[in-house]
Amino acid sequence: MISIVVACATNRVIGRDGGLLWRLPTDLRRFRELTTGATVIMGRKTFESLPDAYRPLPKRRNLVLSTDSDYVAPGAEVFRTLQEAINACGGDCFVIGGGQVYSAALPRADRVYLTQVETTCEGDAFFPALPEHLWRCCEESDPISENGHEFRFRVYDRAA
Ligand SMILES: NC(=O)c1ccc[n+]([C@@H]2O[C@H](COP(=O)([O-])OP(=O)(O)OC[C@H]3O[C@@H](n4cnc5c(N)ncnc54)[C@H](OP(=O)(O)O)[C@@H]3O)[C@@H](O)[C@H]2O)c1
User: Fold this and answer.
1) Residue 41 C-alpha to ligand 1 middle, in angstroms?
2) What is the pLDDT of residues 28-39, one digit of tens each?
3) Dihedral angle at the C-alpha atoms of 104, 82, 98, 4, nearest 10 degrees?
4) For the chain, how many structural domains are there in total?
5) Which residue among 24, 136, 147, 160 is buried most deeply as judged by most CB within 10 Å?
């Protein structure tokens, strides 16, 4: 199963200047619980944005996408295409960003773990829309408030 994990503002912004726009410990904990022990796939820019202590993400197999055949990501495996990375993990993985990789992976994904952050903000990385005829929200948490933001966890499964 190919799952996507993302935290997204209401205007679909996910990041700015190579970083995140909020600090949500409860969301980070959920991210860790979902992905620990599994394979994660991310873009080169997201890998480089991880803090030193979490690069590579511990207790996970880290796969990084880059078109640069010379690119080296210490502690991670580098793949030139999304398909090669999916093949390498036998099709079971979490795609963890950023915007470019989400766009490439969404047509292939079975599930989206989306943290809906109830804010609009300016950014330069985005998560694509989830059209209602393709994606069904099958779980939604109560709202959580943290560090001045309200957010909820949603799980979308592919409907068609
Ligand atoms: N809110 C969230 O949940 C969340 C999660 C993750 C990241 N983010 C944010 O998202 C932003 C980064 O996103 P981004 O879109 O700028 O970059 P990105 O997707 O993390 O990385 C882009 C790079 O990955 C490589 N790449 C992407 N798609 C590829 C493909 N199909 N095949 C081969 N290589 C591929 C390319 O590397 P080369 O240039 O080396 O070829 C490309 O330049 C940051 O602000 C980060 O904080 C947010």
Assistant:
1) 10
2) 999 999 999 999
3) 80
4) 1
5) 24
- Distance of CA 127 from the midpoint of ligand 1 (Å): 11
What's the CA-to-centroid distance between 46 and ligand 1, angstroms?
5
| pLDDT at site 91 | 83
CATH for 95: 3.40.430.10
Pocket of ligand 1 contains residue 21 by CB under 6 Å: no
Q: Is the CB of 30 under 6 A from ligand 1?
A: no
Range of the domain at 136: 2-158
147 pLDDT more than 90 = yes
Tokens of 34: 């979902």
Region of residue 97 (left: phi > 0; alpha: psi -120 to 50; beta: else): left
56 C-beta closer than 6 A to ligand 1: no
Whether the pLDDT of residue 150 is over 80: the answer is yes
- Extended strands (E) in 10-148: 13-15, 39-43, 61-65, 77-79, 93-95, 111-117, 125-126, 135-140, 144-146
Structure tokens of 64? 């990084």
CA of 74 to the centre of ligand 1 (A): 17
